[in-house]
Hints:
Layout: H1 8-16, H2 22-40, E1 43-46, H3 48-63, E2 75-79, H4 106-113, E3 117-122, H5 156-164, E4 169-174, H6 180-186, E5 189-192, E6 212-217, H7 220-230, E7 260-264, H8 273-288, E8 292-296, H9 304-319, H10 338-349, H11 352-365, H12 370-391, E9 397-401, H13 417-422, H14 428-433, E10 437-444, E11 450-457, H15 462-476
Parallel strand pairs: 2-3, 2-4, 7-8, 7-9
Antiparallel strand pairs: 1-3, 4-6, 5-6, 5-10, 9-11, 10-11
Amino acid sequence: MEISTLTIDGVKDGLRARRFSAVELAGEALRFARAENSKTNAYLTFCEERALSAAAAVDAKLARGEDPGPLGGVPVAVKDVILTRGVRTTCGSRLLENYVPPYDATAVVRLEQAGGVILGKTNCDEFAMGSSNENSAFGPVRNPAAPDRVPGGSSGGSAAVVAQGTAVVSLGSDTGGSIRQPASFCGVVGVTPTYGRVSRYGLTAFASSLDHIGPFGRTVKDSATLLGVIAGRDEMDSTSAAAPVPSYDALLDGNVRGVKIGLPREYFKGLASETGDLIASGIETLKRLGCDIRDISLPSTDYAIACYYIICTAEASSNLARYDGVRYTFRSPNSPTLGAMYRNTRGEGFGAECKRRIMLGTYVLSAGYYDAYYLKAQKVRGLIARDFTNAFTEVDAILAPVSPFPAFKLGEKVNDPMEMYLSDIYTITGDLAGIPCMSVPCGKAAGGLPVGMQILANHFDEARMFRLAAAFEKETN
């Protein structure tokens, strides 16, 4: 069997035709993933026993003539900030290097209930803080398309395993672009659903009002199928929405004629030609499919970077306070006092980017600065959200770049935090507004570097977003 090109439908067809069993597929997928991992460092932990047990359950259902579920036998990978009971979850940090959670995230529970076979946990920027996957305490992930380049972050490992073919689909998390940017850099499909569409229960918190769990896949249909599995109300997460979840994969009819698509002029200013030319070609493709392309404005976009990095660092400062060496994390030895233990544990355990964000967040929340920074940023967030609300009265969807440039070289931006932060300029607005967005491959720049095109839709309108992406994917092959 050719693991690296399988889709969800390919797995279903193979099991139905008895070309392989789920256990055989899982075993071969684990072997292939272990062999390929030296090239990318995309996996941090494999869970062979769990995978083979889940695969055996799928085979047993098939033998009884039962439906094994929408993901029956499908090899899946999970970002290492999403909790997996009995399987190490490090969050890419030395603080949690040996942490084994006592429970599963809701998304993991639903994934396995649908027949998914979890192969392992994927590498990521520490506590999901980064845009290149170079902030992991366990070494950077390398882009399968160009090993000297980053895969994007923070969900770089989850994008890389799908691009490399060592998992059919994967789960990542997105706070400011951490699904869409890696998807663009690695040439796969990545989806950030509406805030509240997928339960955050069991997702290690970075910035709680911005965090999302979402899928990666090689095709739009695979991503739509996986989102349909993990989406829906969860009593364990008060922010999860009770909105009904449609059968996304059944709605990919390819009919997009008459769909009104907005091009925000603020997203195309200063866009490099190597990316801009491919996006322009994508726009022409959608025109040929009958879409109505219109220019629009999202005037608060210029304030998005400042707004995002105040809100996300403030929430990170609060959320990361729990990692103090007292409970379940690494503890620095030989600390003579409690205060020294706190200082030494956090000083030795956190990487540079986490420390930077904790300090920034603590500053903007401190007495005398809260109103000047954090409160003002929340007001600007409201303006950004209102821009999108107004835009969606005129158009059905919005099209934009994912990143100003293709994947950059390892080490190129790691010593320039501001330059790194600016790489998220086109993705953070969707997270601030809480709307669904996705990256779909739209071609390759010089050197064969993938480039993604971003589609944004109104709250809980993932179906329209998927339909547009699927039509574009089919037209461009």
